[in-house]
């Protein structure tokens, strides 16, 4: 192009930038010396060769950008966008953030409170260890499994104390606790091999000693560790809970049974399932509508149409009496058929392990009744594994008379201990306690590791706590004693032996009801079903054997000559305590006790029915659900209120329940 053919834009560019250094310019400045003498090679500037065109992009004002730089920039931009949108937590997570980073429907949590330890666990010199069992979902794989211990520790300044955590017997954590008062906040991963079977027994133990700076005969370290109730075993699930057995495992201690249909058949089913769940350790309440929170701790009981009205969506292509649907994306288990006797056994016994799909249809689940003249201590909750004993070891058992063979009272416990080899100056002392009463204390030797301890009938309650403890004693003390752990085992051959004492008052009822009975509710038409279930189910769970599902007869009185439990007043049932015209009366024909009746409360007592049949009477007023029940013993009647209970003797005199339970005559 000639100078005359230049565009106006090019003219302006040349005027604005007369010293342009563009290497591609074909028109050098007129004042350039090389331009004045084109033939003079000595005065010409060397010229760099032009780079290949495909390695550069043309930039602003003619500048060039390497193509490789743009490629690297593009890759970096893509990676940055992936990180930002796929894992934003990587850029916002705090260093101390321990969240599992899964949505709530995939976050499995089982707290100590949810496992029944509402006050947490205390570890001290006298009680240095405790354990709990956690069952994880089996059908939703776990991406991460761990235990989070929270609480506080108190360690004396002159003590050395270690906290040890074992899982299925394998030590996974041990750390020295700081002296003084401190918070406890530890995350402990569960090894994959231990978590593989879906069950983990977590044992927490504190071990300590005094420092060499102090020499004393008392080797107690002055420590206390409180594992708070909100300590949890938790897991990140790869998918939400979706099977029946996993839904049951996910329940915490507090369970709500929702009963939208309050017909007799559904009230029966709800009561039977409520009794079984209570005996399995749950705190059960009833409702006609979905609770506002904790929907994953809900059992629905009703026909599918009624459950749909509550917002429950059934699983796709799943039929059966039990099904896991959803309520607002939360997995919720529902009983859609009113077969409470079968469902109650299925939900609380081992066969529930077969329910590995979204629905199941159990039709018959019989439970074996206890038999024989002995019950092993393992069946009563005692740990029969080998344990290391430093100074003391306790084995705790609980038994209900209703669950023993024939409802009989035990007469003794046979204790078989495997003792370790020890120095000659060491003595083991075994103590036996029943319901807080010391029954016996004896020395053990290597040849006397077995003992039979009588269990007095007068010291027994309907529900009993039995403790066997072993203490170590030596003639030497202080710095001359080497603190050594000794292995010891309560052998599985240890057992409670049945007796023939008939019992008295409430302790005589299990033997009366053992052959079988029905629950009669004569005045059921006008009663509020939810209030009634909340009131009577905890009482029934106390007196009904765990292997038995009673028949409910609404609007019917007890039959002559048949054992029974009756709710409310019934013709032909004679009780010692009577509620008449708003007053509580007790005693002979002329009442010795005559007081105004409560607005909210219960009277629970033994009774005589048609044909001299013996049974239990439950009368209530108001809405007494959730009231604490007394420790039923040899008394025959209990008046239960929100502020406590008292027993009534046959002559009408009253006595505090704790004294009555200790063995007042019936």
Fold and architecture overview:
The chain is of the alpha+beta class and 666 residues long. 16% of the residues lie in helices and 35% in strands. It contains twelve helices and 40 strands. Strands 29, 30, 31, 32, 36, 37, 38, 39 and 40 form a nine-stranded mixed sheet that branches. Strands 3, 4, 6, 9, 11 and 12 form a six-stranded antiparallel sheet that branches. Strands 14-13-15-17-16-18 form a six-stranded mixed sheet. The longest helix is centred in the first third of the chain and has 20 residues, at 67-86. Residues 1-43 and 89-95 have low confidence and may be disordered.
Instruction: Report the sheet with the most strands, covering strand number, pairing sense and barrel closure.
Output: 9 strands, mixed
Cα distance spanning the termini: 127 Å
| Average pLDDT taken over every residue | 84
* Assembly classification: single chain
The tally of helices reads 12
Biased composition (Polar residues): 15-27
Region (Disordered): 1-60, 647-666
Keywords: Membrane, Transmembrane, Transmembrane helix
Transmembrane segments: 68-86
List the helices and strands and how they pair.
Elements: H1 8-16, H2 33-36, E1 56-58, E2 64-66, H3 67-86, H4 89-92, E3 107-111, E4 121-124, E5 129-135, E6 142-155, E7 159-167, E8 170-176, E9 180-189, H5 192-195, E10 199-210, E11 223-227, E12 232-237, H6 244-250, E13 254-258, H7 264-279, E14 283-287, E15 298-301, H8 304-309, E16 322-327, E17 330-335, H9 340-348, E18 359-360, E19 374-376, E20 387-389, E21 392-400, E22 410-418, E23 426-434, E24 437-444, E25 450-454, E26 463-474, E27 486-490, E28 495-498, H10 509-513, E29 518-521, H11 529-543, E30 551-554, E31 564-567, E32 574-575, E33 577-580, E34 583-586, E35 593-596, E36 601-608, E37 614-621, E38 637-641, E39 644-648, E40 654-656, H12 657-661
């Amino acid at each position: 192009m000639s100078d005359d053919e230049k565009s106006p834009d090019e003219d302006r560019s040349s005027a604005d930038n007369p010293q342009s250094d563009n290497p591609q310019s074909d028109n050098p400045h007129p004042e350039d010396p090389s331009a004045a003498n084109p033939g003079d090679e000595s005065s010409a500037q060397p010229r760099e060769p032009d780079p290949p065109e495909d390695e550069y992009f043309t930039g602003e004002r003619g500048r060039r950008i390497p193509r490789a730089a743009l490629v690297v920039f593009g890759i970096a931009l893509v990676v940055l966008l992936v990180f930002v949108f796929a894992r934003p937590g990587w850029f916002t997570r705090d260093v101390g953030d321990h969240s599992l980073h899964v949505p709530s429907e995939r976050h499995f949590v089982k707290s100590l409170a949810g496992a029944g330890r509402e006050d947490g666990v205390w570890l001290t010199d006298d009680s240095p260890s405790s354990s709990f069992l956690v069952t994880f979902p089996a059908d939703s794989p776990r991406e991460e499994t761990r235990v989070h211990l929270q609480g506080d520790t108190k360690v004396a300044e002159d003590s050395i104390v270690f906290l040890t955590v074992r899982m299925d017997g394998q030590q996974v954590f041990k750390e020295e606790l700081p002296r003084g008062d401190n918070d406890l906040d530890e995350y402990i991963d569960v090894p994959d091999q231990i978590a593989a079977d879906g069950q983990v027994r977590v044992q927490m133990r504190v071990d300590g000693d005094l420092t060499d700076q102090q020499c004393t005969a008392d080797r107690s370290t002055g420590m206390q560790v409180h594992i708070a109730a909100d300590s949890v075993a938790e897991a990140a699930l790869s998918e939400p809970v979706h099977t029946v057995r996993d839904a049951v495992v996910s329940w915490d201690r507090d369970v709500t049974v929702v009963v939208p249909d309050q017909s007799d058949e559904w009230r029966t089913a709800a009561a039977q399932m409520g009794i079984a769940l209570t005996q399995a350790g749950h705190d059960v309440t009833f409702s006609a509508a979905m609770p506002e929170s904790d929907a994953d701790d809900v059992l629905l009981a009703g026909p599918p149409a009624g459950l749909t009205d509550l917002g429950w969506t059934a699983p796709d292509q799943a039929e059966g009496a039990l099904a896991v649907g959803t309520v607002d994306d939360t997995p919720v288990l529902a009983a859609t058929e009113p077969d409470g006797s079968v469902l109650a056994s299925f939900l609380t016994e081992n066969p529930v392990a077969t329910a590995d799909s979204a629905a199941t249809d159990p039709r018959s689940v019989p439970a074996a009744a206890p038999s024989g003249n002995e019950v092993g201590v393992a069946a009563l909750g005692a740990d029969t594994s080998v344990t290391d004993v430093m100074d003391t070891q306790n084995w705790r058992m609980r038994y209900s008379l209703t669950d023993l063979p024939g409802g009989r009272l035990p007469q003794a416990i046979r204790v078989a201990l495997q003792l370790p080899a020890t120095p000659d100056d060491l003595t083991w002392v075994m103590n036996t306690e029943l319901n807080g009463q010391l029954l016996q204390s004896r020395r053990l030797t290597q040849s006397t590791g077995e003992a039979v301890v009588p269990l007095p009938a007068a010291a027994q309650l309907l529900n009993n706590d039995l403790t066997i403890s072993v203490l170590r004693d030596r003639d030497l003390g202080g710095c001359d004693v080497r603190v050594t752990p000794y292995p010891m085992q309560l052998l599985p051959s240890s057992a409670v032996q049945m007796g023939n004492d008939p019992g008295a008052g409430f302790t005589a009822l299990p033997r009366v009801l053992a052959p079988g009975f029905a629950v009669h509710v004569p005045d059921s038409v006008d009663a509020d079903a939810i209030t009634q279930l909340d009131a009577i189910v905890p009482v029934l769970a106390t007196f009904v054997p765990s292997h038995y599902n009673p028949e409910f007869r609404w609007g019917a009185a007890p039959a002559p000559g048949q054992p029974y439990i009756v709710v409310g007043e019934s013709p032909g049932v004679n009780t010692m305590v009577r509620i008449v015209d708003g007053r509580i009366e007790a005693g002979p024909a002329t009442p010795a006790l005559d007081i105004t009746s409560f607005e909210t409360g219960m009277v629970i007592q033994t009774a005589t029915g048609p044909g001299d049949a013996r049974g239990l009477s439950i009368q209530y007023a108001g809405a007494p659900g959730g009231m604490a029940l007394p420790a039923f013993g040899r008394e025959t009647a209990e008046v239960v209120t929100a502020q406590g209970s008292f027993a009534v003797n046959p002559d009408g005199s009253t006595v505090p329940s704790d004294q009555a339970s200790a063995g007042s005559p019936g």
